[in-house]
Amino acid sequence: MKHAFSIALIVALLSIPAFAADNSQTVTFHDPVKVGSSQLPAGDYKISWTGTGSSVQVTISKKGVAPVTLPAKLVEQKHNRSGVTTNAVNGSNVLQTILLSHVSLIVGGPEAGGL
């Protein structure tokens, strides 16, 4: 009995990174992007999210840049490539949507919960 419990515990612990990998991907910002009150320089960013259902918390991070966390609406959609959509506001590219391999994260506009 103890042996079966040990095996189940090991399998559970090894599967945690696999679940986390589903909620984390990389996207490239080709131009500087405004996210909330933060201006993020162009570059490759790790996008991760937590939560269940359509309302999630998104964290955008890159080494050397302060991470940005904000609410978003998650929509399950398949995309051929990752990317972002922005809206030009007062000369800045304001982040609207992050497109990843199997989801879209809407971070701007009323769809995201009033951003």
Give the key terms.
115 residues; alpha+beta; single chain
Question: What features would you describe in this structure?
Answer:
The chain is of the alpha+beta class. It has one domain (24-112). The chain contains one helix and nine strands. The strands form two sheets. A seven-stranded antiparallel sheet has the order 1-4-5-6-9-8-7. A hairpin with a 4-residue loop joins strand 4 (43-50) and strand 5 (55-62). The longest helix is centred in the first third of the chain and has 21 residues, at 2-22. It is globular.
How do the helices and strands line up, and which of them pair or pack?
Blueprint: H1 2-22, E1 24-29, E2 33-35, E3 38-40, E4 43-50, E5 55-62, E6 65-76, E7 83-89, E8 92-99, E9 103-106
Antiparallel strand pairs: 1-4, 2-3, 4-5, 5-6, 6-9, 7-8, 8-9
How would you briefly describe this protein structure?
The chain has 115 residues and is of the alpha+beta class. Helix content is 18%, strand content 51%.
Number of helices: 1
**What is the typical, i.e. mean, pLDDT?**
82
As a percent range, the share of strand residues is over 45%
Largest sheet: 7 strands, antiparallel
